[in-house]
Write a structure and sequence with these properties.
With 288 residues, the chain is of the alpha/beta class. It contains 8 helices and 15 strands. It is 28% helix and 19% strand. The structure holds arginine (ARG). The site of arginine has 17 residues, from loops.
């Protein structure tokens, strides 16, 4: 009897998805008017492959329109012709509790993007804006959960930047070692699904064995992505607590997201993939 009863309870729990709530977000984006692949700083970038700029613009506008249709606010940064990667706005700063930690790029080709972001934040009246001493590529390597700031290192951001972020934001920073060059930024291998409840999805193979153990310990219920979905940059996704915007090609993530009560929204950002980025890379969240 007891066994049957327990079995029933388990089945019920599995079938009843948690109820989810979207909360309105503020995002900073930069139109890909000058997006090009003229250099290669990650394995996705091949300057020999042509980029269809009007298509990139249309795909990016679709993403922006989805955000506004979902009730989110999108602010825009002016694209600069000399900065072809500027569309990847997530890399330009990290904003938590209204405080802005600027970026310092690892590659000279992107260095000037950091200043463009700082100028924007100051012009918007943000009072607490810090220019960093150490290399960090903004939300490319910093992911904010309820309890932590998860921080990638190994390809771009320096471990010293992790300490700097912890001191600046006053939140515990958990350093994670990235080991696969295809997943050179944390946001290519890990996505925060519910930032009010420490819920994430990630691709374990992108991390060192020790970092995998840390993730398993801190997030035992995480959604674990398969290699195919990670390779479609399916983890380069943005969640508002209910809707998860992600590349449609990451088909294997849709059912597990729905089973957890999320509403996946598939998008085609194939042109931006040529730069090594997708939904999240194009989206910087302005928190607080
Ligand atoms: N081409 C850019 C770079 O390699 C892509 C950045 C993608 N952004 C991101 N948040 N992962 O720096």
């Amino acid at each position: 009897m007891a066994v049957t009863h327990d079995a029933c309870a388990i089945t019920l729990r599995e079938e009843t998805a948690v109820s989810r709530d979207a909360s309105p977000r503020r995002y900073l984006m930069c139109p890909p008017a000058h997006f090009r692949v003229t250099y290669s700083i990650n394995p996705w970038m091949d300057p020999a492959k042509p980029v269809d700029v009007p298509l990139a613009v249309a795909q990016w506008e679709d993403l922006r329109d989805r955000y506004t249709a979902l009730g989110h606010t999108v602010s825009l940064l002016d694209p600069r012709p000399d900065l072809p990667d500027m569309v990847f706005a997530a890399n330009g700063a990290t904003v938590v509790d209204g405080r802005v930690l600027g970026a310092r790029f690892a590659h000279q080709e992107r260095t000037a993007e950091a200043g463009a972001h700082l100028t924007w934040f100051r012009a918007q009246g943000y009072a607490d804006v810090q220019e960093p001493a150490h290399v960090n590529e903004g939300e490319g390597d910093f992911a904010v959960t309820a309890s932590y700031i998860l921080a990638g290192r190994g390809f771009r951001s320096s471990p010293l930047a992790h300490d700097e972020a912890q001191e600046f934001f006053g939140r515990p920073v958990i350093g994670l070692d990235l080991v696969d060059p295809r997943y050179y930024h944390l946001d290519t291998a890990l996505c925060v699904l519910d930032d009010a409840a420490d819920e994430i999805m990630y691709y374990p193979e992108a991390f060192s064995p020790g970092s995998r153990s840390v993730l398993a310990r801190l997030f035992p219920d995480a959604l674990i992505a398969a290699g195919d979905d990670a390779a479609a940059l399916g983890l380069n996704a943005v969640s508002d607590g209910l809707h998860v915007l992600l590349p449609s090609a990451a088909a294997g993530l849709f059912a597990p997201l729905r089973a957890r009560g999320f509403e996946p929204v598939g998008l085609d950002l194939s042109e931006l993939l040529k730069g090594g980025g997708s939904v999240k890379c194009c989206t910087q969240e302005l928190r607080g």
